[in-house]
Amino acid sequence: MINLNGTILEKHKAAISISNRGLNYGDAIFETLRVSAGKIYFWEDHYFRLMASMRILRMEIPMNFTQEYLETQILATIEANGAITAAYRIKILVWRQEGGLYSPTTNEIDFSVQCSDLQNSFYLVSKTTMR
Predict the structure, then answer these.
(1) Residues near 89 by Cβ (< 8 Å), separated by ≥ 6?
(2) What is the pTM of this model?
(3) Which of 20, 12, 37, 13 is nearest to 93 (CA)?
(4) Residue 107: which of 61, 65, 60, 63 has the closest Cα?
(5) Dihedral angle, C-alpha 10, 65, 121, 86, nearest 10 °
């Protein structure tokens, strides 16, 4: 399941336009985070980095795009994908709505929240050495 602009859809039913600005011009940002047992690790840090990146790109941040709203969207997406007690990797992707060529015609955004299962709930240190 995937969350597209606040609507939970099956992944194969979620669609974006071929004119998507993120796809055509790299006019998008993403944030990847870890969730385990319903707890979003370092959520405040991830949220503020996402907001700072959106400001740098001059994206219009909707009034409802609060830390609480996005947390609700993340948890709803996880719930739709299975047990809330499992460990997940979450990817929040934000892109400017289509319009314009190199210069956008709007600063309004669309977003998605995707999750994938993690094998381990914890961060592990590899004992192998890099050469």
Answers:
(1) 32, 33, 34, 115, 116, 117, 118
(2) 0.88
(3) 20
(4) 60
(5) -40
Report all structural domains of the chain as residue ranges with CATH numbers, in order of start: 2-117 (3.30.470.10)
Output the six-digit token pair for 92: 């929040």
Pairing mode, strands 109-117 and 39-40: unpaired
d(CA 33, CA 72): 14
Residue with tokens 């994206």: 59
Phi and psi, residue 12, nearest 5° = -70, -15
Task: Report mean pLDDT in 10-residue bins for the chain, 131 residues.
Answer: 96 92 95 94 97 97 97 95 85 95 92 90 69 64
Rounded CA-CA distance 52/46 in Å is 10
Per DSSP, the residues of 17-68 read: -TT-HHHHH--EEEEEEEEETTEETTHHHHHHHHHHHHHHTT----TT--HH
